[in-house]
Amino acid sequence: MVLRLSEDRELLVTEGSTEPSRSSARSGGSAGSFGVGASAVALVAISWIALAAAPDSVSIGSGDNGRRAEVRVPVPDDLPGFRPEIAFLPNGDLLGFTEIPGGAFTMGSDPGRDSLSFDLEWWGDGRVQGQPYVPTFYMARFEVTVAQYAAFLNASRHPVLDARTVQAPPDHPVAWVAWTDAVAYADWLDGDLRGRADLRDTHPMLAGLLQDGWRVGLPTEAQWEKAARGSEGRIFPWGDMPERDFANYRARGTTAVGSFECPSCAHGLADMSGNVWEWTVSPYQPYPFTDDDDDETIRSEALWVMRGGSFGDPEQMIRAANRGGADPGARRPFIGFRVALVPD
């Protein structure tokens, strides 16, 4: 069963299949991907209700031609734990980028071990898991915040298509962003940091990576899952059992990034479960995972994979192997993103 969230608020559901359907039911639209069964049907109902309640977009600062007007988004003078002078990135030599060592890792779910798994997480009819190899990369410790996104908006002419994108507190994850917005932010940040590296305005290690061809972008689906579950194949970022103290889920809204301390979470990353769904650079396609045919998939009107679940989701949706998918223009209060530093 696949849920497709589209710009025109369609909810598309196909039972017994991992292929997106082209038949639809009207709804507010959700962004999860679900396996078949009674529990999945219940989750579909939950998502339908949540998305139907999501209000339509409200534009801000854009003209008739969609170009952004000269509107400056307010940002704080100071934000504890972040550096206002460097686009409000986190303190630290690498500005929040955390090394994820290269190697093979367990991807997907084994329903014999994880009874909450959906069929979209199984690598084939054998209900097995995969062991893809992912080279070393760096994942942002936090989701992109409202302050970071506002710094991007103020430095660029990127349109602000929804006022609510920048109305949450500055240290909360940015939401109401489409996949296209996330890609634009990553491209801007890459250029900004690259310019600082040329001016020797960043740590030598970060500057060296950028000068060697590494770039800021959205993580692939495999990179995201490797970062979330570590080398042990955990069901959740912290282990195999749900823990309300480690993530923001079954809640009413977002919280400041890093609010839930999780010393046992893989790689020390925050909010890999809950808070907001996170866009990836990967188009949705059935497992086994490969990015070799992404271009072909994109030409077939692909959905884009999102990971991690959100503040309003139950335990089943915030597992590290769960897969969500949405149209690239979808903007919702529970969709955000984080960036990665990856080899080109």
Number of helical regions: 6
Quaternary organisation? single chain
Query: What is the rounded Rg?
Result: 19 Å
Mean pLDDT: 82
Q: Could you estimate the helical fraction of the residues in percent?
A: 10-25%
Unreliable spans are 1-59, 62-69
Sheet with the most strands?
4 strands, antiparallel
Distance between the termini: 34 Å
Structural class: alpha+beta
Strand order of the largest sheet: 6-9-15-10
Strand content: 5-15%
Q: Work out the number of β strands.
A: 15
Principal-axes geometry comes out as globular
Could you give the order of the helices and strands? Answer: EEEHEEEEEEHHHEHEHEEEE
Nutshell version of this structure?
The protein has helices at 38-52, 146-155, 179-198, 204-211, 221-229, 294-298; strands spanning 4-5, 10-12, 25-26, 82-83, 89-90, 97-100, 103-104, 133-134, 137-140, 215-217, 277-283, 304-307, 324-326, 335-336, 340-342. It has 344 residues and is an alpha+beta fold.
Task: Please tell me about this protein's structure.
With 344 residues, the chain is an alpha+beta fold. The protein has six helices and 15 strands. The strands form five sheets. A four-stranded antiparallel sheet has the order 6-9-15-10. α3 packs across α4. The radius of gyration is 19 Å and the shape is globular.
